[in-house]
Design a protein that fits this description.
Strand 6 and strand 7 form a beta hairpin. The chain contains twelve helices and twelve strands. The chain is elongated, with a radius of gyration of 33 Å. Helix 9 runs parallel beside helix 11. The protein is of the alpha+beta class.
Length: 437
């Protein structure tokens, strides 16, 4: 319950922060046009922070529901489902296996699982689950291509994932097979899987005190055995060309997005303010992300599992594309810059250390010439940190305005004034040598 309440608070705060950020950008627009308004960066930061907090809130709400379901199942597990159970049952010449896995709480918790399985003499594979909004959306966009049966009730309720297209078409052409799967889903088994020569019906989150009933075993086993008896004689096997092409495209797309992010290590010109560079990079990152999502959809489309691969790629791209966008923006801002180099001489105003898990970072602070009252930081090693004198040593920083309006640093050097340097030791004269005049 605590996780869910905290999650709702996070979502509310996220919407408030995003709303304030949007209001900030709208309010400063007229003033910015005249050049006298406040900066736009706080508004962008608030919007980004709001989105992040909303996502965190959603994850907390989901985790809270997960923990609550596990705890409820663990409290009410009586009778034959108290502990992990595996039973092999023979009835009327047929054999089925029942497996119950009790819920586990804690950091690596998992919900309970009830599984019925029967032997299936085929190498074919498929997975049937309830059709969700993402499945329907991807079908409308043409990314996913579902194996249709012509039965509107079945096609609307279930989504079939498989590369064994011809096998599934013949298998689900049988009305008994379709009805058996619908019956299992109505019982509570939301996932029916054929793999490893076994046909399985899985019920995640099964609560014995709430869901168990006297006829559950017999009903579930009867439906599974009916599915196993209706296997078509067609030779099972996926279309090798389709699966190989999808695998290659997935690999190359993943390599491409990681490679785009890796440009940050090659094309990075240090900005004076990182936040300013990030905001400017959105003009590159957002179109690049949309282009990548479109390209991935075009290359992967056409199978019942295309949207699963596509989803994984675009989720990774949420982190990879912005890194590459920062690198490209930094490169353009520096290479196209024709503004003169400006030297800034600022005395060291303070020292600070930043601690991470395994290391300590040492920085020297000096006054910002862009934002009065703020401090800029310069990373140094431990020896320079100890030798630096506050109010005496200086930072000599060369910057340019940047082609995209992001001020960037050509060079930064810690300098000790001559008056503060120790005098050079005089070399003793050799016999007969005269002192220099």
């Amino acid at each position: 319950m605590v996780y869910r309440i905290l999650g709702y608070v996070f979502v509310l705060c996220g919407f408030c922060a995003g709303g304030i950020g949007v209001a900030w950008l709208i309010a400063i627009n007229p003033a910015q046009a005249g050049g006298n308004g406040p900066p736009a960066l706080p508004g962008g930061v608030l919007i980004a922070a709001g989105i992040l907090v909303i996502v965190l809130g959603g994850l907390l709400i989901r985790h809270g529901r997960h923990v609550q379901a596990i705890a409820k199942a663990a409290r009410g597990a009586p009778g034959r489902f108290v502990d992990d159970t595996r039973r092999v049952v023979k009835v009327a010449g047929h054999t089925y296996t029942l497996v119950y896995r009790k819920p586990v709480t804690g950091k690596n918790g998992r919900p309970s699982l009830l599984r019925f399985s029967v032997p299936a003499e085929t190498k074919a594979q498929f997975k049937v689950k309830a059709e969700n909004g993402f499945d329907r959306w991807c079908k409308r966009l043409g990314i996913a291509k579902e194996i249709q049966t012509g039965d509107a009730a079945f096609d609307d309720a279930c989504y079939v994932r498989s590369d064994d297209v011809e096998f599934c078409r013949q298998y689900f052409d049988d009305a008994v097979s379709r009805q058996s799967i619908l019956d299992l889903q109505n019982l509570g088994f939301k996932e029916i899987v054929l793999e490893g020569r076994q046909l399985q019906a899985n019920w995640s989150g099964f609560e014995p005190s709430k869901h168990d009933r006297p006829d559950l075993d017999a009903t579930a086993a009867a439906r599974l055995l009916a599915l196993a008896d209706n296997l078509p004689s067609v030779k099972a096997g996926p279309d090798v060309r389709v699966t190989r092409r999808r695998r290659k495209c997935t690999i190359w797309l993943f390599v491409g997005e990681v490679g785009f992010a890796a440009t940050l290590f090659f094309f990075h010109y240090s900005p004076l303010y990182v936040g300013q560079l990030f905001v400017a990079s959105l003009a590159v990152s957002f179109p690049a992300y949309l282009l990548f999502a479109w390209l991935a959809a075009r290359l992967l489309r056409g199978t019942s599992t295309s949207h699963d691969n596509w989803l994984g790629l675009i989720v990774v791209a949420i982190f990879m594309i912005p890194l590459g966008g920062v690198a490209i923006t930094s490169l353009l801002n520096a290479q196209l810059d024709r503004t003169p180099v400006t030297m800034h001489f600022e005395k060291i105003s303070g020292k600070a250390t930043h601690h991470s898990n395994k290391s300590t970072h040492y920085v020297l602070q000096y006054r910002s010439w862009v934002k009065p009252g703020e401090q800029l930081e310069y990373s140094v090693n431990h020896d320079d940190y100890e030798r630096a004198s506050i109010g005496v040593d200086e930072m000599h920083v060369a910057t340019s305005a940047g082609a995209l309006g992001v001020e960037w640093i050509h060079s930064a050097l810690l300098v000790k004034p001559l008056a503060a340097q120790p005098p050079l030791a005089e070399k003793p004269l050799e016999d007969g040598e005269r002192p220099a005049r």
